C-alpha cells in the first residue's frame, strides 16, 4: 500500500495542476483576507452595526482565521482530476495493469487526496496566520487562543479540507468525465452549498451538507447579517463529514472495481 | 507450462458479440501473431486476458492463472495496449517511476527500461511532445520494467516508421528466441508481423478462423512446384509416371503437384532434362489472410 500511495503522490506532483490550484487558492484566500481586514469594524449605516467586527476583537480573529477554509474547493477539484485524468488520458489502463486489485488503487488515491488536502490546509493556515496575527496585534488586540478559538478553527480547516479531497475522488469516480466533474464540484461548493448555508431558512438542510458540517466543526459563531446560523455541534459536524467521506469512498470503489476498461 | 491460454472466451458489448468462443495458446520462446481486421475482437481478447474487461464466459489465463490474481503482475507479464495512454504533461521518466512505485520496483528500472528502447536521451521531456513512434517505444519500455517472461502487445507497430518497425521485429524476436519469452502481438497489418511471428492466430468478427504455424498457413496442402525445363515433353510424362499431377501452364512451364522440388530435380536428372527454374509455390499470406477473414 505504501508503494501505491507513493505512486499516487508522484502522479499528483509530476504534473502542473497541483501548484496552479495551490496558487489560485492562495490568491483567493488573500483577496478574502484583504476584504475582511479592510472592512473590519466599518459601520453599516442601514443596520447601525459593523458587519465585520473590529480587528482588535477575538471575533475578528475567528472570522479572519476561518478564511483558511477557502482551500476546500481546490482540493476537491484536485481529487476530481486525480480520478478523471486517468480516464481522460487512459493512464487508468497502465494503473490497473500494474495493480489489478482496483480497490487498492482507490484506497491509495483516497489517502493521497486526504494528504493533499492536509498540505493545502497547512499552506492556507500559514498565510492566514501571517496576515491575521500582525493585523490584530497592530490594531491593539490581544491574541487569545481560547477566545478566538484558533486551535479549533484550525483543526476544523485541516479535517474538512482533507475530506474534500475524498469528496472530489468520489465525484470523479462517479462521473469520470473531467469537465463534468470539475463543473459539478464548483457548482456544488459555490452554488448549492452557498445557498443552503447562507440562507437561514435553509439551514435545517444546509447543516447536514458537507459545507455546513465543516462550519459546525470550526464552530464559527459570527452573525453574517442574515441571522445567526444554527449548526450542528462540533462533534456532530465531524461525524457528518466522516460519513460523507466514507460514502464517497464507497461510491468511488463501487463504481470502479468491476467496470470494464475499454 | 503454457504461457498464455485462452479457452472458449466470449464477451459481448450490448448486442455486439466482440469475442465469440475464441480458444488458443501461446508457448514460451515463440512469437504469436494475433491477426484480424479492425474490429475483429483482438483488443477485447487481450483486455480480457489482462483483467481490464470481465469476460461473459470462458477463461483467459497467464501461466495458468487469471491476471488479476497475480501477486506481482508486472514481473510476469509486460503489456502494451495503446500508445496514447500517457499524461501529456508528465515526463517519460516520471511516467515510468510512477509505475515502479506502484509495482514495488526500484526506481533505477525506469532509466534502464527507457535505455532499452532507445529513449534514454528524452527521459526528462514531457510526453506531450513525443511522436507516436516515441510513445510506442515508451509504452514498450513500461512493459519491460519488471523483466517479465510474457509479453502481450496490442498493435505495437502502429505509428512506427519503417526503421522503427524493423527495430521492433528484431526486439520481439530477441525477447522470444534469445530470452525465451512468450510474445503475443496483435496486428491488422499482416506485413508488419509476417517476418516476425512463428505462429499465427487469425480472428474475424469475434471468431477464430485459423491457428497454426506461419509455415503451415503459407504452404497450403495442395502446394505446387513451378518447373521450367528445356524439354517439358520428356519431363512431363516422367513426372506423371512418378505419381505427380502435371499441368502445362505454357510452353516450357509446368505446374507439378504431388512431388516436392528435390524429387522433381532428381527425375529431371534421370531424364537428362535441363531445369531452368524450380520454385516451390507459397500461397501469398496476404491472400490467405483476406480469404480467411472474408475481406475480399
From TrEMBL, chain A:
Keywords assigned: Membrane, Transmembrane, Transmembrane helix
Domain of life: Bacteria
Keyword Ribosomal protein: no
Keyword Transmembrane helix: yes
Coiled-coil parts of chain: none
Bilayer-crossing regions: 20-43, 63-83, 110-133, 153-175, 182-202, 234-257
Protein name: ABC transporter permease
Organism, scientific name: Planotetraspora kaengkrachanensis
UniProtKB/TrEMBL annotation, chain B:
Chain ranges of the ABC transporter domain: 4-230
Coiled coil, from the record: none
Domain of life: Bacteria
Keyword Nucleotide-binding attached: yes
Listed SUPFAM superfamilies: P-loop containing nucleoside triphosphate hydrolases (SSF52540)
PROSITE patterns: ABC_TRANSPORTER_1, ABC_TRANSPORTER_2
UniProt-listed Pfam families: ABC_tran
Keyword tags: ATP-binding, Nucleotide-binding, Transport
InterPro entries the UniProt entry points to: AAA+_ATPase (IPR003593), ABC_transporter-like_ATP-bd (IPR003439), ABC_transporter-like_CS (IPR017871), P-loop_NTPase (IPR027417)
Record-level Gene Ontology MF annotations: ATP binding; ATP hydrolysis activity
Annotated signal peptide: none
Record-stated family: Belongs to the ABC transporter superfamily.
Protein name: ABC transporter ATP-binding protein
Amino acid at each position: 500500500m505504501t508503494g501505491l500511495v507513493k505512486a499516487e503522490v508522484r502522479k499528483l506532483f509530476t504534473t502542473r495542476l497541483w501548484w496552479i490550484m495551490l496558487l489560485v487558492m492562495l490568491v483567493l484566500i488573500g483577496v478574502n483576507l484583504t476584504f475582511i481586514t479592510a472592512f473590519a469594524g466599518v459601520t453599516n449605516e442601514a443596520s447601525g452595526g459593523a458587519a465585520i467586527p473590529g480587528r482588535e476583537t477575538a471575533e475578528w480573529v475567528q472570522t479572519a482565521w476561518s478564511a483558511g477554509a477557502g482551500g476546500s474547493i481546490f482540493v476537491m477539484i484536485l481529487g476530481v482530476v486525480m480520478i478523471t485524468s486517468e480516464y481522460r488520458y487512459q493512464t487508468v489502463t497502465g494503473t490497473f495493469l500494474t495493480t489489478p486489485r482496483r480497490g487498492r488503487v482507490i484506497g491509495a488515491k483516497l489517502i493521497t487526496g486526504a494528504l493533499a488536502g492536509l498540505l493545502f490546509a497547512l499552506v492556507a493556515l500559514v498565510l492566514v496566520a501571517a496576515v491575521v496575527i500582525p493585523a490584530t496585534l497592530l490594531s491593539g488586540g490581544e491574541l487569545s487562543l481560547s477566545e478566538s478559538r484558533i486551535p479549533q478553527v484550525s483543526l476544523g480547516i485541516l479535517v474538512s479540507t482533507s475530506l474534500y479531497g475524498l469528496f472530489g475522488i468520489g465525484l470523479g469516480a462517479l462521473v469520470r468525465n473531467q469537465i463534468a466533474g470539475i463543473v459539478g464540484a464548483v457548482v456544488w461548493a459555490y452554488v448549492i452549498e452557498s445557498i443552503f448555508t447562507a440562507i437561514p431558512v435553509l439551514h435545517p438542510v444546509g447543516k447536514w451538507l458537507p459545507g455546513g458540517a465543516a462550519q459546525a466543526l470550526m464552530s464559527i459563531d459570527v452573525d453574517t447579517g442574515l441571522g445567526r446560523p444554527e449548526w450542528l455541534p462540533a462533534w456532530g459536524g465531524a461525524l457528518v463529514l466522516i460519513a460523507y467521506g466514507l460514502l464517497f469512498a464507497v461510491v468511488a470503489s463501487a463504481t470502479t472495481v468491476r467496470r470494464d476498461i475499454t | 507450462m503454457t504461457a498464455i491460454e485462452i479457452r472458449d472466451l466470449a464477451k459481448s458489448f450490448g448486442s455486439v458479440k466482440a469475442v465469440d468462443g475464441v480458444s488458443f495458446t501461446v508457448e514460451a520462446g515463440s512469437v504469436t501473431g494475433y491477426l484480424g481486421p479492425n474490429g475483429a475482437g483482438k483488443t477485447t481478447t487481450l483486455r480480457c486476458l489482462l483483467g481490464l474487461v470481465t469476460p461473459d464466459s470462458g477463461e483467459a489465463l497467464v501461466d495458468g492463472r487469471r491476471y488479476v490474481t497475480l501477486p506481482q503482475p508486472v514481473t510476469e507479464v509486460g503489456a502494451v495496449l495503446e500508445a496514447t495512454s500517457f499524461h501529456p504533461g508528465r515526463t517519460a521518466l516520471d511516467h515510468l517511476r510512477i509505475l515502479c512505485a506502484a509495482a514495488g520496483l526500484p526506481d533505477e528500472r525506469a532509466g534502464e527500461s527507457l535505455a532499452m528502447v532507445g529513449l534514454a536521451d528524452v527521459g526528462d521531456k514531457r510526453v506531450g511532445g513525443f511522436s507516436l513512434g516515441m510513445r510506442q517505444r515508451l509504452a514498450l519500455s513500461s512493459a519491460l520494467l519488471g523483466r517479465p517472461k510474457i509479453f502481450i502487445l496490442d498493435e505495437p507497430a502502429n505509428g512506427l516508421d519503417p526503421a522503427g518497425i524493423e527495430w521492433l521485429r528484431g526486439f520481439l524476436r530477441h525477447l522470444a528466441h534469445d530470452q525465451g519469452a512468450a510474445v503475443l502481438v496483435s496486428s491488422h497489418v499482416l506485413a508488419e508481423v509476417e517476418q516476425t511471428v512463428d505462429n499465427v492466430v487469425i480472428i474475424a468478427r469475434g471468431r477464430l478462423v485459423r491457428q497454426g504455424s506461419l509455415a503451415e498457413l503459407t504452404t497450403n496442402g495442395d502446394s505446387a512446384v513451378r518447373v521450367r525445363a528445356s524439354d517439358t515433353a520428356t519431363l512431363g510424362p516422367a513426372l506423371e509416371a512418378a505419381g505427380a499431377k502435371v499441368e502445362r501452364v505454357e510452353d516450357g512451364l509446368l505446374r507439378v503437384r504431388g512431388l516436392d522440388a528435390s524429387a522433381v530435380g532428381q527425375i529431371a536428372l534421370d531424364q537428362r532434362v535441363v531445369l531452368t527454374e524450380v520454385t516451390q509455390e507459397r500461397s501469398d499470406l496476404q491472400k490467405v489472410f483476406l480469404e480467411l477473414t472474408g475481406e475480399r
